[in-house]
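Table S2 (text version). Query chain:
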Amino acid sequence: MSNRQKQPLPRIVKILAMEPYKITLLWTNEEVRELDFEPLFALWKEQNDSRLYPLFDYAVFKEVAVSSVRTLHWPSVPIQLTLRNRIIEGPLDLDPDELYRQSTLLRKAEPLAVGDILRKARLKAGLSQIEVAVKSGTSRNYISRIENGKSDIQLETLNKIVQLGIGKQIRLEIG
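Corresponding structure-token output:
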């Protein structure tokens, strides 16, 4: 078994676009993927899974939302499952792993090398991680995690570290 930490399975962040029976989704792994339901409909018909037939009606299909567990969810489509002699009722949720497998990658967001940029600016200013941390009100461990790509950072926090900790200004450009 590998010592590498397992990456969490991708889940849906939000619906970006919808057209008849196709949904474009942003996933937690920063991928934008398109999910075409036509092949799924054919499979569901072949399997005679009538619980899913309401989705064949576009008026019902377009009521889709992202659920709290980050999968596609139809609140208006009730479903019943029998587990260990118990009937569980709830709205229709589809398996996010299967949705991911059935979807097609459109594009992936390029990672922003904030840690590398911050490290270079810190070193150019001749400062240690502890000096930057003390000046910016953070911790050396946090600065290290950012520089090594192990922690995300909010833009406000990055601005505080750069201005107060390194004594520089951020110039943000969207191109």
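Notes on Table S2: The first strand starts at residue 12 and ends at 19. The mean pLDDT is 90.
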